[in-house]
Amino acid sequence: MLSITSPNQWYKRAEKSFLAGNYHQAASLYEEAIAIEPEIKSYYWYLGLMLLLQGQEVEAQTTWLMAIMEGDAEQVEVWNAELVEVLQTEAQRREKLAEYSIAEKIRQNIKEVCPENIHNLLNLLQLAIKLEIYTGQDLQELGIIKILQSEPRVEINLGLLMETLKSVLDYAPAHPSTLDFAEACLPYCRDNTQALLIVLLPSAIEIGYSQRQYGTAVQLCEIYLKLNPNNSEVIGHLASFYQNSGQYEKGIETAKLFFSLVQEVADKVFANRQILRGLMTAGGHWQESCSVHHRQESLVRLLIEENPKHLDTARISRLFNANFFTPYIHDNPRESRNIQNQLMQVCQKNIANYEQQSVNRYFQGHLARKQQSKTTKKLNIGYLSHCLRSHSVGWLARWLFQYYDQDKFQVNGYFINTNPSCDPLHEWYLTKVDKVYKSNEYLQIAEEIYQDEIDILIDLDSITLDTTCCIIALKPAPVQVTWLGWDASGSSSVDYFIADPYVLPDSAQEYYKEQIWRLPQTYVAVDGFEVSVPTVRRDQLDIPDDAVVYLCGQRGFKRHPDISRLQLQILKEVPNSYFLIKGISDEESIKVFFDGLAEEEGVDISRLRFLPIVATESVHRANLGIADIVLDTYPYNGATTTLETLWMCIPMVTKVGEQFAARNSYTMMMNAGITEGIAWTDEEYVEWGVRLGKDEVLRQQIAWKLRQSRKTSPLWNGKQFTHEMEKAYTQMWEIYMNSQ
User: Fold this and answer.
1) pLDDT for 24-79, tens place per residue?
2) Is the pTM of this model over 0.85?
3) Residue 457: which H helix or E strand, with range?
4) Under a CB-based contact definition with an 8 Å cutoff, are residues 436 and 426 in contact?
5) Among the residues of 245-264, which ranges form H helices?
6) What percent of the chain has pLDDT over 70?
7) CA proximity to 350, closest of 385, 311, 299
8) What are phi and psi of 291, to 5 degrees?
9) In sequence order, which residues have a C-beta less than 8 Å from that of residue 178 and are 6 or more positions away?
10) Which of 384, 522, 401 is closest to 461 using CA atoms?
11) DSSP 617-671
12) Residue 644: CB atoms within 10 Å
């Protein structure tokens, strides 16, 4: 029989057994207590809990039912509340201990007692996610959405609701019930829209940019805007998501709305760029694109004049690529590089002010390490990019990872916004580096690079990703190099820009901030490309077997009307010829664009064919074989597409300009030993296009030379190229170590 001098002593003894995990002994104590004081209902609550913790769920529920069944309705309500409080307290304790299975079992029993306790249901949902048993159906099965939609509205802890919404968005963003849940949360956030914003917007950004689920990101933004329709931050991102999801006109109109809502010059620069991005991505809007670009140049100059010094990183990051579209509009590097360099100086100053502690610490750390460094150690090389996946950069950079000298170099990969579960090429990169680090946070990545004591950091993104720009601006490595991903950024924190004898003119150093490091032959090389089975044939496109087929496979950005007009002039001069047009863009606007030009040039639009994008790069390359001649774009050439064309042994015509983007095809053709098709003027471009179209023998000779080039050309020797790059790394490090 239980012998206790006071209730307090009894509770201590029972609690001690309970907390020690001796549930059997604790249950015995509660049973004895019930025998002595059967009217004390809390004994039943705790006895049932002890039985539940021993796996005796039916016995636990029977114990609680026996205690409750003898009361009237009012008493039952009170006793249920007491039982729920006991179970709730224990569930919370288990959650703090990360004992989620036990907490889930307890909360399931709370649900049996109070099936519409919304706070318990939300916690159950979070537990399902932590236990990885969440299916997406839980929201419906638990009745959470129905309860949230009921009238009058239930009283709810907004913090718990938003925490649960975030968990669901992180775990199952694409499930239809997730969006229903977000929608059901709206009425509870009317008085605190910020609470919803700090959950929905980061989730939309992660889902849209990292996971590339643009449709879901669009819907999340649209849901929030029902509550706060003029939030410029959400509208700015929504414009990008529309554009990325192929809803081009919506993307353009939303970007224009964004521009109308912001006032500061820095925000105007970003918003105007969003308009330009929409127009350029769709293609076919060239007149308006040029007008908006002219406004962009004026806004950027105004920003440079204002020279702000206290912008936060969110606003700075939006400015790095404000001039992204300039090389697509015109080829004037002296002017455009000067503006880009000044813009980057503004960004660099603001980063240095905002992250002064990190910048100073990295600088001092580099100096200290330089003094202690031993020349015999391996060089630590870090590659930083969001493109080491199925992307042009990903296909071209492989050979540096395949062939690097493991005796002389340690190679680390710093991967941004990557989703390896659905990208075999990214998976390949993960196996080729000595250390993998993945994050979307620029401060975390920069700190990891610094802690890893990277000697030379290779930036493969330039201004194509704001996160990369922020990392580079902090200078987490003593030597930083830009290669491959775009033209040089103009950042003072970048030491070198990799080029070759052809891709930049001799005078280029006059307007580049970075030191141009020219490799002896080519700035890029590959061992080749995977080629699959073609999916298009001439008969499918209603093209005769004896016709001459021209192809331009560039995205809408690159379809400048001036070069498109020249392409149509070529078509006009070559009898029985057809023009295949392929690339990422708004198909309808591109058709209107080309139909209009064709009418002006007197070309029958029945000679134009528009090809859809194919699923894989290997099929895309195979389909190039349908073409007799590829017509390159200007002022922004092909790069990966040019390499693929040359690898497939297809003659091409390119116009050479002054800027980096206008000389890619030139350097690749020169390194493949092909001068036929290289034009320096509009007239030469048309002449080469017509000549190649009319001279089948010349085309065959070029194709033969290209096949032979596979044996000897530096363009097709990834191992030799890797050796040249590593030689450059070694020399860069020697220069750094010998510098004052």
Assistant:
1) 888 888 888 888 888 889 889 999 999 999 999 999 999 999 888 878 888 889 99
2) yes
3) strand 456-459
4) no
5) 248-261
6) 98
7) 311
8) -65, -45
9) 136, 139, 168, 169, 172
10) 384
11) HHHHHHHGGG-SEEEPPSSS--SHHHHHHHHTT--EEEE--SSGGGSHHHHHHHH
12) 22
